[in-house]
Records
---
Amino acid sequence: MGRYVAGLWLTIIAPFIGMIVIGGPDGGVVDHLVLHILMIALGAISLWLVAGLRRTVAPGGPRPSRAIGVTCTILFVVQVLFLIGNAGEAAALIKEGGFHLGEAIFDDPLHSAAAWITPNAFMLAVLAVLVLSVQALVVTRRQRGGSVAPEVD
């Protein structure tokens, strides 16, 4: 379970921090189209990781947890929206000429609609990974026999 959660940190949290560092899609460090293609690849990998984690915590899996399963389902839907948003933005960029379009791309209605979905899905995915991390810690501690909260006398 820990490998899946670590993978989600690498495919969702790390790129989120990277986006903040480079200044977002118009930060000038990475071309806008390249950024969306990279995000599509990372989103696809994260879907694979979420599906693997979901199989691990399924009722017949090695570490069953209904709460983690529900959070995985939510994260899966959010990541699909993230992929749709990035694919829409990439399609708009390709339609308008690809690389180095500048501010003109923000007038494209397809790009504007997709650009509304992408950051919102990104933020929800970050939140879901944080929740999954805490849930995985709690489940792992319980299964090892350790207490999650201090006992009261």
---
Amino acid sequence: MYMIQFGAQSGSTQADKTIGSYHILLNKIFYQKQGESDYFKTLLFLSIVFRVSGKHQDFESEGAESLQKSASRNVYTIDFTIPQERWQNKTDVELRSYIAEGVRSCFDLLKQKAIELGEVIDEDKLERDFEYGMKQFMTLSLPELKGR
């Protein structure tokens, strides 16, 4: 699947360690490079950037925000801001549910923008493949992070 690329900016080392495995797993599911997109006419892919608050930087909000077109590539991106209290001292089940809910909100906004632009090739396939990816996210083991 070459649908969504996930990025991350963390406000502390602990925030990076906690959210990093989820970020990597999402990229493994949704951002496997291939030739042309199965989903969009000219867009390369969609992008969701986690902004994870921590002790060194607080992004001072929560949820989906700042939907915009990338200045350098034909990509639409949105931030998913995560306050420290949403990830700190949470179980895997709690974190997966919270992240999945946020990713769904971000995806819905990005999808609507792509539809408005006439970029979506097959809306049903986009939605089906997204749902399949989210099921994988909820059940696959988290990758181990080396050197974090």
